[in-house]
């Protein structure tokens, strides 16, 4: 009974443990409203981006391969790009299937 209780609702987090592709070239975004002219710079966010390595699929938020997201704010416009962070662990999973 306890196990069933713990699993209830997990389908709601399934979109959070799906792999995404890198966006290496900046893409324009649609801004709703206006961004003050004095706001210029980069917003960086780190989080999981890949959950499959070979035939292995990880289903916990902490197991995903790290992805860095960049939102560049300049003159009221925003562009976005992303890439996977490279690490020894990433190399082992992607190239050595460890």
Task: Please describe what this structure looks like.
Its EC number is 1.13.11.71. Its cofactor is Fe(2+). The chain has one domain. It is 14% helix and 39% strand. The protein is built from two helices and six strands. The strands form two sheets. Strands 1-6-5-2 form a four-stranded antiparallel beta sheet, with no helix packed on it. It is elongated, with a radius of gyration of 18 Å.
Kindly list the characteristics that best describe this protein.
dioxygenase, metal ion binding, 4-stranded antiparallel beta sheet, disordered N terminus, metal-binding, 98 residues, two-stranded antiparallel ribbon, mainly beta, elongated, beta-carotene 15,15'-dioxygenase activity
Structure described in brief:
This protein is mainly beta and 98 residues long. Helix content is 14%, strand content 39%. It has one domain (19-96).
